[in-house]
Design brief:
mainly beta; 12 strands; 133 residues
């Protein structure tokens, strides 16, 4: 799991983060597993009401999904906020803006409303060598 880097929703019990809208062209880091740099987000305002968020995954990270789920998951989820979100664990499954990105992809875009704050959650995977003994 990965999040756009920012402020924690809560101090304990979840590492989900939100951030203030940085403006067009400004990058926001994506962190996987709380500490691993997984890429970045950029923003382009399409008009006064809509912004396009572009996700660029790096360092071997790719979009993924829950293989135990029998349906394709929405693996890119965004919630926009007028004000700083409440200090509670976010329900990412209830985020307003969700799309399913092809597993293995390293880039994606999503259009959402222009707003003051965003929470961006991604389901990602990182290839690692496996050894069978």
């Amino acid at each position: 799991t990965a999040w756009g880097d920012g402020e924690p929703y809560v101090e304990q019990g979840n590492w989900g983060t939100y951030f203030a809208y940085p403006g067009p062209g400004v990058e926001v880091d994506i962190l996987a597993g709380q500490i691993m740099y997984a890429g970045y987000l950029t923003f382009e305002e399409l008009d006064e009401e809509r912004v396009e968020i572009t996700v660029t995954l790096e360092n071997g990270f790719v979009f993924y999904y829950d293989v135990a789920d029998t349906e394709v998951d929405d693996n890119l989820k965004v919630q926009d906020y007028d004000d700083i979100p409440p200090a509670e664990n976010p329900a990412i499954g209830l985020f307003d803006w969700k799309v399913s990105i092809e597993p293995g992809s390293t880039t994606a875009t999503i259009e959402v409303p222009v707003n003051n704050y965003y929470g961006v959650h991604l389901d990602v995977a990182y290839p690692a060598e496996c050894s069978v003994e």
